[in-house]
């Protein structure tokens, strides 16, 4: 069984045991995060259940596996012949979640 969930401002297709990476969630490692924004359920075979916009009384339980930081992104600004350049780096704080259960 797979579920389409909206968590952390993004949509993911998840199944039990899968890991996803989202923007940082302020929950300690090992605790559970419950997502009740289930947009659709894909059951074994061709059965598809779609919510309007969400499926009532459905939820997906995630376990916080770890907090990580994304790759470094460089923002470089440059204007030729003006002796102007700026270099700025950024690393996004991320959380890795593991799917524990899908409740329909």
From TrEMBL:
GO cellular component, one term: ribosome
Keyword Cytoplasm applies: no
A UniProt-annotated Pfam family: Ribosomal_L21p
InterPro entries for the chain: bL21-like, bL21-like_sf, Ribosomal_bL21, Ribosomal_bL21_CS
Molecular-function GO terms, alphabetical: rRNA binding; structural constituent of ribosome
Biological process according to GO: translation
Keyword Transcription regulation: no
Swiss-Prot/TrEMBL keywords: Ribonucleoprotein, Ribosomal protein, RNA-binding, rRNA-binding
Function per UniProt: This protein binds to 23S rRNA in the presence of protein L20.
Assigned protein family: Belongs to the bacterial ribosomal protein bL21 family.
Subunit field text: Part of the 50S ribosomal subunit. Contacts protein L20.
Name of the featured protein: Large ribosomal subunit protein bL21
Source species: Candidatus Coatesbacteria bacterium 4484_99
Name of the gene encoding the protein in the UniProt record: rplU
């Amino acid at each position: 069984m797979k579920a389409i969930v909206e968590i952390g401002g993004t949509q993911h297709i998840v199944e039990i045991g899968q890991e996803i990476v989202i923007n940082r969630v302020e929950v300690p490692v090992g605790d559970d995060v419950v997502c009740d924004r289930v947009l659709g359920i894909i059951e074994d075979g061709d059965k598809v259940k779609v919510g309007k916009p969400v499926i009532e009384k459905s939820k997906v339980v995630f376990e916080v596996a770890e907090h990580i930081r994304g790759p470094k992104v460089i923002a470089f600004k440059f204007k030729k012949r003006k002796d102007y350049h700026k270099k700025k780096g950024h690393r996004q704080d991320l959380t890795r979640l593991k799917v524990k259960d899908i409740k329909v």
